[in-house]
Amino acid sequence: MGLTLFSRKHKIVNLVIKDHVLRYVELKQTNPLIVQKCGEYYLPPGLIKDGRVIDRETLSTILEQCVADWKIRKKQVRMIVPDPFIVVRKLEIPKDVEGDEITGYLYMELGSSIHLPFEEPVFDTVILGEAKDKKEILLFAAPEDIVKEYSSLLEDCGLIPVAADISPLSLYRFYHALDKSRTEEHLLMIQLDVGSMGICIFEGEKPIFMRHIQLPGTLSSWETSLTGTGNTSLVYEENHGDIEAAFSDIFNELDRIMNFYRYTLRQGQQSITKILLAGDNPFKNKVFEELVVRFNLFVDRIDSHEVHTVNQTPLPDSFYVTLGLALKEV
To answer: What digits encode the pLDDT tens for the residues 173-198?
Structure first.
């Protein structure tokens, strides 16, 4: 993939807000990929739960301090819409609905031919193709109130929101930039974080299925610790047997999802051909080893030495979604 120099006069900040952490990245350039600045702040438990802001006042105070410490005040920012609220769905619409009319058509069909698990959505769409009298599209939807809440939070803390994305697309964008993706593959992407697991299936470069799963336990079971390289890592303070038992359930769920894709979505004609594992869960290496053993598939990871900062230090893999967000519209 040919990338060009990312040399805007005013660089855009890329911010990911999860239940347990804030992360930001600013790029210096994209060819080769070099990170100008990055940072993270681990949140105390209870401020955000399943993507929903619970304690806005405390979260806002922390974010304001991060904005000041990171020196990003009054900068434009891209953000990630929390995974638990995202709906991805293939739809067929009349062929004569033009590209600039699709959003209006979808709003008219809400509640009749199109059903979503929330009211007042915001949409994004991709046209997949046409056949006979139908046009196939890929719909991305999220609750408007959630998008507005995060956008207003950023504005209140001195940032200027300019774009939003979803985490699977951001991670895939980075994966594609490294020339690791293949148009013919059927990829199962797993984002394994400390409190949740995001699953997304890609056909070629298009996400066609998403699921967000909360992991057992609470974020209070994790403590932060400094590594020898000065980075912050997470340490699980409870019985490791509990979380390993939870991973056994996760593998069973992955097996069900792959069977659902093969036999329901693809009518037995196609199955998953590759797995990509990412995320910030410290047990990720153990999960990788088990995935290799359990599934007769190539399990891929992104090497931590693929991207460096201006100081020539490798970018920690926990920043890969944020980095993919930085590549949006480059």
So the answer is: 999 999 999 989 999 999 999 889 99
Is 28:36 a contact under the CB 8 Å cutoff?
A: yes
- Paired with 22 in beta bridges are 17, 41
Instruction: Enumerate residues 6+ apart whose C-beta is below 8 A from 140.
Output: 86, 87, 88, 123, 124, 125, 126, 166
- Which of 29, 30, 25 is closest to 3 using CA atoms? 30
- Are 16 and 100 within one domain? no
Burial class (CB in 10 A: 0-12, 13-18, 19+), 328: middle
Identify whether 316 is part of a domain. yes
**Judgement on whether residues 127 and 34 belong to the same structural domain of the protein:** no
Whether this prediction's pTM lies above 0.85 is answered by yes
Q: Phi and psi dihedrals of 109, rounded to 5?
A: -90, -5
Non-local CB neighbours of 153 within 8 Å, separated by 6+ positions? 53, 56, 59, 60, 63
